[in-house]
Amino acid sequence: MTEAKQKSVSVVVPTSNGRELAAYYLPQLCAYMEEQSGVKQYEIVVTDDNPTEDMHDMYAREFEKVRYLRSKPDCGFVSNANTGIFASCMDYLLLLTDNTLPASNYFDETLPYFDSVNNVFGISATTFGANGSDILEGARMPLLKYGNIFYTDNFSASKPCTSFCLSLRNMLVDRKKLSMMGGFNLLFNPEGLENMDLSLRAWRISWKCIYTPLTSCKRIEPNKKEEPAKNIYRANTHRANQFLLNYLHSNGPSHTLFMIHWVCLFLVSFFWPTSGWRGYRKASFLFLHIFREAHSQRHWQYVQIHNTVNVVCNLFFPNRQNVDIQDLRKKL
C-alpha cells in the first residue's frame, strides 16, 4: 500500500469487565499503539457498562493514554459503543471488541485508503480466531431472499475490495462521518446486526466500505462459553434485529415481500410448537415492542436516503463478486 500522511486515531473498546480488561488486554494494546509509526497521535477509550467498582484512578495511574468511561449499567453493546464513539476526538476511529488485537501492519494497510479512494466510510480486515488459522470474517457479499437482506462471507478475496458490511471486531472508520450518522442505531440494542445497519446507511449515502486481506486482526483468547439462557436470548434478539434491519432498509416490492414473509412466520409460530418457532414468536414480539419507533425512523430518516439497498447491491451484481479496489477507483 502507498504511504500516507500520519493520522490521529481513537481506539474504542467497549467492555463489560474493565478490571479484567486492564489485566490482560490493555497492556498489549497500549504497547501495540506505541509501535505504530503511521499514527501521529492516538487515544484509547474504554467504555464499561458493568463496572463492579470505580476504576478511574487505577486507569489514570496505570494507563496514561487510556480514558475510562462508565456507561449505564447493562446498557448493551450498542449503547456502550456509542458512549466511546461520541467521546472520541481523533480523525479516525478504530472500534475493537475487547479480545481482538490488530496485526503490526494494520494501520499501514488501512489508513492510506482514506486518501486514495474517494468517500471511504470504513475499512475492515480479516479476523482470525485465537488459534491464528481459523478465519472468522472476510469480505461480505449481499444476499437478498424473500425480501430479506442477508450477507455471506467471501473468504477467497485475495485483494482489497468492497464489502457489504464492516466487521464489528475491527472497524476503522472516518470519525466525522460516523458522528454525522449518529453512531450505531440504538434500536439494535443490546446487540445484533448494528454493524450491518451502519454499513448499509453508509453505502446508501454513497460512502464506501472496504475489506482488505493484506492485514488482519486476531482474537487473543477463545470464545467464552455462555449460559444456555443467554444464548437463547441472544438468538432471539438477533432474529428481532434481522426483522428490524429489513423493515428499515427494504423498499418497494421488497418491503412488501418482507412484511408478508414476517407476518407468515409470526402466524406459523403460534401453531408450530417447536423451540425454533417459539424463537421466531419471541423475536416477533421483541420487534413489535420497538415497531412504533422503527416506523418513525423509517419514515423520517431511512426513506430519505437517496440510494436504495438494490442500488447498493448492484455494485456487487451481476457478477456476484466484491469489486476490486482498482476497479472501484474507476467505477465510482
Outline the structure in words.
The protein is an alpha/beta fold and 332 residues long. Helix content is 42%, strand content 23%. The chain is built from 14 helices and twelve strands. The strands form two sheets. Strands 1, 2, 3, 4, 5, 6, 7, 10, 11 and 12 form a ten-stranded mixed beta sheet that branches. Strands 8-9 form a two-stranded antiparallel ribbon. A hairpin with a 6-residue loop joins β6 and β7. α9 packs antiparallel against α10, α9 packs across α11 and α10 crosses α11. The two termini are 20 Å apart. The relative contact order is 0.13. The model has no long low-confidence stretch (mean pLDDT 86).
Q: What is the chain-wise order of helices and strands? A: EHHEHEHEEHHEEEEEEHHEHHHHHH
Number of strand segments: 12
SS element count, helices = 14
CA distance, first residue to last residue: 20 Å
As a percent range, the share of strand residues is 15-25%
Which descriptors apply to this entry?
two-stranded antiparallel ribbon, 332 residues, ten-stranded mixed beta sheet, alpha/beta, single chain
Summarize the structure.
Helix content is 42%, strand content 23%. By secondary structure, the protein is an alpha/beta fold.
Lay out the secondary structure:
Layout: E1 7-15, H1 18-24, H2 26-34, E2 39-48, H3 56-62, E3 66-70, H4 77-87, E4 92-96, E5 100-102, H5 106-110, H6 113-116, E6 120-128, E7 135-137, E8 139-145, E9 148-154, E10 161-162, E11 170-174, H7 175-180, H8 194-204, E12 208-219, H9 228-249, H10 252-271, H11 275-289, H12 291-302, H13 309-313, H14 325-331
Parallel strand pairs: 1-2, 1-4, 2-3, 6-12
Antiparallel strand pairs: 4-11, 5-12, 6-7, 6-11, 8-9, 10-12
Helix pairs in contact: 9-10, 9-11, 9-12, 10-11
